[in-house]
Amino acid sequence: MEEKLVSLKDVTFKYDGQDRNAVDGVSFDVSKGEWLAIVGHNGSGKSTLAKLLNGLQFPGFGSILIGDMELSEETVWDVRKKVGMVFQNPDNQFVGTTVQDDVAFGLENLGVQQQMMVKRVQDALNKVKMNEFLDQEPHHLSGGQKQRVAIAGVLALQPDIIILDEATSMLDPRGREEVLDTVRELKEEKILTVISITHDLEEAAKADRIIVLNQGRLYREGTPDEIFHLEDELVGLGLDIPFSVKLSKSLREKGVDLAGSHLTEEELVKDLCALNSRI
Amino acid sequence: MRIELKDLEFRYQMNTPFERLALHDINLAINPGTYVAIIGHTGSGKSTLLQHLNGLVKPTKGSVVIGDRTIEAGRKEKHLKGIRKMVGIVFQFPEHQLFEETVEKDICFGPINFGVPEEEAKKKARIALKLVGLSEDILEKSPFDLSGGQMRRVAIAGVLAMEPEVIVLDEPTAGLDPRGRKEIMDMFYQLHKDQGITTILVTHSMEDAARYADEIVIMHQGSIFQKGTPFEIFSQPEQLIEKGLDVPETVRFQLKLQKELGVRFDHPCLSVEDLAGEVKRVMERGSR
Amino acid sequence: MLDKMIFGRFVPLDSPIHRMDPRSKLLLVFFFVCVVFLANNLVTYAILGVFTFILIALSRIPARFLFNGLKPILLLIVFTLLLHIFFTKEGAVLFDLGFVKIYEGGLLEGIYISMRFTFLILVTSLLTLTTSPISITDGMEQLLGPLKKWKMPVHELALMMSISLRFIPTLMEETEKIMKAQTARGVDFSSGPVKERVKSIVPLLVPLFVSSFKRAEDLAIAMEARGYRGSEGRTKYRQLSWQTLDTLLMCSLVVLTALLFLFRS
């Protein structure tokens, strides 16, 4: 049995003055070392969920367990040491005047000794490959670079979990790639458990598991393979399906003898090659 | 209305220590009623280029011809309002330009600035609101009470209500979810088809460019690297990849398949449907 | 937009003055402003001048930047000079132009005061030219540190200042962007009657305020998520280090003051 790091039970949350619950009876677990993607269209409740996980909001009903701590007003500051967040807008989370100051910000808050800070800032920036930009000011960085600095700011605090709250949605394709590559490497090195909240299905396809949210409720949960099998159902929810899934579906409809759906282009090419040699 | 850029060059901060060349040797003609996509990396000069299309910046060399007006480097230009009425720009994250108390007032702001009487502007606001797929009951609401997606649409309606002949779109769908993205892109395409509005789309998405545009302009390091129909451009995908530029996912897949399967496609496929058909055809041909 | 503001802007070079502790530079400016008033004759002004020029030479700042800093004040300096020349009636008459007499005292006083002005401007701009804004903030925070005992929110002020510094370029960019967007919607920011131009500020300011509030809110959330809960228990990443050079600078100030006392009349 894998170690459970996060556990949500019947979490429900309503904003003041709204009729509908923004998050409605959501339960799920996250295991250590896993990459979980939470997808849903804008307004599906996924960003609210992110805020609940970090104690920026508290559920009206239900419970959230991080490690062995139940998230509450008393434990929130300890929970935040375990959960790092990267937000959507790269500019609005850059606190420091330079890259290194920004990475150090969280460490200063925790009262880490200065020599220790220097080392941890260096290490964190090495991991996101931004170590050559120590004294750079934020307005000279690209969106992708700023987000990588934000990730370094999280890494420096050595949390167990990183939550990416639509962290790539304001970036250009190159920036998105940079950020996702960074996250993938961190996950592979088993440094972090990743929860990425997104509407980018290409990003979700890289996760181990996907949760689909719709109108605040948990609509489906499964591996990317299982989720993308839903095909048109996802489109109906305002989402999209990855290119290779689309193509494989279209090929099957045209009578090409393919078994099942294809999550990556490589798989599809491989199957087509196999098919070709068989003919 | 025709737009032409001739031997255009643009430098930021001319004659200061901070001078920087942003665009050079730009020659581009945009014919009335076409849909042109301008593509390139961040920093390739595409955003600077689009600001020349209605006189927001003036070239430091060369000239811009917009309809019967010519904006020439080194000449003082006045009364550019006429140009700006004809060429509407939807900037990236246009919801940031909303400021009025009500949605109606905000949409009417552009038309009234260009001398449209208030009553008529209100009519135009209603038409524009319908175009962007919003209902009239939000007219009296504050734009700041709307959802992000609705704000985006109101801002776009504000530009459409000016009834421009040319519309310039700078990444109009950035940050939207897939459904919102498709709805907005389809809406602009419909407008282009129905009303013959010249549309200039600045985008990172090769897929959108391939799907909607009649002509694609590829920017690289401040100049035009290639221009042509999507078909022409993506017939030589290798050249684009060499420059570190993307190609549509369908074309990328074709390349992979050509390499692995040792087959040849006759033409670049720009839609999933087309690609599926071609893959099937190529494989059947190969087996014979 | 930002690039047009050259006055007093930090010029990152490598010089002894650049390397000095911001605290010593702040103290230098503070004391210099005081001792400047000790000078009252040719010798003492010459001493101040020599001191200033040694500092400038050490900083390796190109004269062009310093001159730019002086430009806005130049008019004021010339004006005071003329004022004294024509209106101070002390000492012997130097020239008699019939309708006005120029006195020796007036001329000297005028020259002294303009020199005092020039030195003050030069030394203060030297501070901003050789010290990054964030170092100045750090230096201030440290120097004002003792005031915390009297419940002065020194840390909060310093943080506010450093966040403002961080966001100035972002907001400048944003202003330019919104200006362009509204220009494209038919607003004319640069010509037309004054009334119209004042009105055109609204479509610029409202979006700017809205986005600044949004940024502030986002930033507050991000800071909280990163464990910010005020100054208590907080350590500092940026360390200031007081070096021999700084002590030397302080000594030179003492020498300067002594010299000024010795030679003033």
From TrEMBL, chain A:
One of its GO terms (molecular function) is ATPase-coupled transmembrane transporter activity. CDD domains: ABC_cobalt_CbiO_domain1. It comes from the Bacteria. It is found in: Cell membrane. Residues 6-240 form the ABC transporter domain. SUPFAM superfamilies: P-loop containing nucleoside triphosphate hydrolases. Keywords: ATP-binding, Cell membrane, Membrane, Nucleotide-binding, Translocase, Transport. One of its GO terms (cellular component) is ATP-binding cassette (ABC) transporter complex. Coiled coil: none annotated. PROSITE patterns: ABC_TRANSPORTER_1, ABC_TRANSPORTER_2. It is a peripheral membrane protein. The keyword Lipoprotein does not apply. It holds the Pfam family ABC_tran. Its main location: membrane. The keyword Cell membrane applies. Belongs to the ABC transporter superfamily. This is Energy-coupling factor ABC transporter ATP-binding protein. It comes from Peribacillus glennii.
Automatic annotation (TrEMBL), chain B:
SMART domains: AAA. Pfam families: ABC_tran. It is a peripheral membrane protein. GO terms for cellular component: ATP-binding cassette (ABC) transporter complex. Residues 3-246 form the ABC transporter domain. InterPro entries: AAA+_ATPase, ABC_transporter-like_ATP-bd, ABC_transporter-like_CS, ABC_transpr_CbiO/EcfA_su, ECF_ABC_transporter_ATP-bd, EcfA2, P-loop_NTPase. GO terms for molecular function: ATP binding; ATP hydrolysis activity; ATPase-coupled transmembrane transporter activity; cobalt ion transmembrane transporter activity. Belongs to the ABC transporter superfamily. Energy-coupling factor EcfA family. Forms a stable energy-coupling factor (ECF) transporter complex composed of 2 membrane-embedded substrate-binding proteins (S component), 2 ATP-binding proteins (A component) and 2 transmembrane proteins (T component). This is Energy-coupling factor transporter ATP-binding protein EcfA2. It comes from Peribacillus glennii.
UniProtKB/TrEMBL annotation, chain C:
GO terms for molecular function: transmembrane transporter activity. InterPro entries: ABC/ECF_trnsptr_transmembrane (IPR003339), EcfT (IPR024919). Its main location: membrane. GO terms for cellular component: plasma membrane. The chain crosses the membrane at residues 26-59, 65-87, 117-134, 244-263. Transmembrane (T) component of an energy-coupling factor (ECF) ABC-transporter complex. Unlike classic ABC transporters this ECF transporter provides the energy necessary to transport a number of different substrates. Keywords: Cell membrane, Membrane, Transmembrane, Transmembrane helix, Transport. This is Energy-coupling factor transporter transmembrane protein EcfT.
